[in-house]
Amino acid sequence: MSREEDLVLNRYEVVYVAFHDLSTEDFDRQLERYLSIVTDYNGTIVKIDKWGKRKLAYPIQKRREGNYVLIDFVGDSAIIPEMERRLRIDDKILRYLSVKTSDKVDLEEIELEIAAAREAESSVEASESPESSGPAESSESIEPPEQLEAEAAAAGDALSDDVADETHEEVSEEDVEVKEN
Fold first, then answer.
1. What predicted TM-score, i.e. pTM, was given to this entire model?
2. Which domain holds residue 93?
3. Model confidence over 19-60: pLDDT tens digits?
4. How many angstroms separate the CA atoms of 55 and 66, rounded?
5. If residue 67 lies in a helix (H) or strand (E), which one and from where to where?
6. Residue 170 lies in a domain
């Protein structure tokens, strides 16, 4: 058996919160450093999700906002200690969290998932291309707000009349017996 066959691959997610006031270049450089850890340890990056600038639940180091990033990857368990060590050392990181999402991952399934994600991404980019000449037309017509308000008021009045009729209706003993059977 070769070394690669003995290697058990797990799936991990690492979320970290960086300073919100980093320049785009610094932020991208920082992300590349953490992605290089995964690739240096022969891991496979499944997804990178930049959540962007968000308000923190409570102040951390006198900061109220941070840039959130999620890195989803598959690799050996040796990646996590190294990544956490570097995240701990980096003074531009407010918080981080590493989670093992699954054990013994099939690399072929992951490659299919990555390919499907890339295909979906390319189809979204194609639909957002400047070739589209405007918003897509829908089959429903758009009514003016005044007309919608009038229809809603009429429907509300009809509904309240029906409810009023039902609540004041007397119930006879014959009706009760019929409903029980």
1. 0.62
2. 3-105
3. 999 999 999 999 999 999 999 998 889 889 999 899 999 999
4. 7
5. strand 63-75
6. no
